Amino acid sequence: MVQDTSAVVELRQYTLHPGKRESLIGLFEERFVEPQRAVGIRVLGRFRDADDPDRFVWLRGFRDIPSRAPALQAFYGGPVWKANRDAANATMIDSDDVLLLRPVDARSGWPVLETGTSLIVATVHLLTAPVDDPFNRFFETRALTLLAATGGPPIARYQTEYARNEFPSLPVREGEHAFVWFSAFASEADYERHLAELRSSRAWIEMVEPELARRLKSPSRVLRLEPTAQSLFPRRTGNVHDFDFLAGDWKIVNRRLEARGVGSKRWDEFPGRSRAALHLGGVANVDEIQFPTQGWSGMTIRTFNVETRQWSIYWINSRTGRLFPPVIGGFDGDQGEFYGDDEDDGHPVKVRFIWTRRGEDAARWEQAFSPDGWSWETNWVMDLTRLR
């Protein structure tokens, strides 16, 4: 699962004037997503509250606390917000229900939501004291195991970020000790089955619920949230033999944009050669690519998850030695699509790989970045020809 790496997240709940939710969602996704990402704000999930037609819920992330206020100032002081704020504010009764949060640990950030996710359930616990190590151990060892066993494993977990709000024109709820976790379901029926199993679990009733109740300041709040269409990424599954064609030696013609994200049409062309080998019966494969005119080389590692039937593709180059975050997906016929999250020049971007098989002896790979999740710029193309 590809997870967001934001160190700070806002959970924002808006109460709207009757009948105005769709107007706000349209305005938000058409006008406000890309400009926020352009200043370093990571726009995460956007949701309709399934139990209240006049509520809109969304999350946004920031690299860290020091970068939060400048990013917010850049967006709210910028031309897009100024041109559209009156229309947005006209839909809202209240926009101050905001929790400032941080991931519980490096594994609990927001994931990429894929097509097929129809319901996200957020459980908001307000506690009498800050989340501490004993609470996290309790949740890890007791609650998380039972939630997973009953079909509702948490996909993200957050706790209060106590740093000072350096952008006071947007209030956040202060004095709260929050613990928030999210689960994802393919359907309402799946959620109901999960609830039924949980309610019949003796361990949940006798061990988890009493321990949670002992720590609560007020009753837990459960939000049933329906992702907007643009919050979701296509889900591609594949086959363990998808990349069998790649085994062997290849001649590569590379074309790479000289400048990304500025509308450039100038491409740099350079040669390459690669050798790929299959491992573990095809469950993994590795290729090493040499770029003789560039002064550096690269390596790709691909692994196939037999349970989810998806490939994870990792890239590393000799210049940095850093393993880049994976893109995940699979093939449909001769074309494969793979999606993930990364950064480009300090800005968060969505990443897409497209692989196209062209018979036994030719293939194409394309890389594209997107600042908003739906507008894509292809910035690197490799045309491969097999060496005999």
The helix-strand sequence is EHEEHHEEHEEHHEEEEEEEEEEE
Round the Cα radius of gyration to an integer and report it. Answer: 23 Å
Total beta strand runs:
18
Contiguous runs where pLDDT drops below 50 for at least 5 residues: none
- Mean pLDDT level: 93
Helix content: 10-25%
**CA(first)-CA(last) distance:** 37 Å
CATH architecture of the largest domain: 2-Layer Sandwich
* Major sheet characteristics: 10 strands, antiparallel, barrel
Structure description:
There is one protein chain. The chain contains six helices and 18 strands. The relative contact order is 0.13. It has helices at 21-38, 65-76, 79-89, 133-149, 188-199, 202-215, and strands at residues 8-16, 42-49, 55-62, 92-103, 119-126, 154-160, 178-185, 221-227, 248-257, 267-279, 284-291, 296-305, 310-317, 327-332, 335-344, 347-357, 362-370, 377-386. The two termini are 37 Å apart. Helix content is 22%, strand content 42%. The longest helix has 18 residues, at 21-38. The chain is an alpha+beta fold. It folds into two domains: 8-231, Alpha-Beta Plaits (2-Layer Sandwich), CATH 3.30.70.100; 244-386, Calycin beta-barrel core domain (Lipocalin), CATH 2.40.128.20.
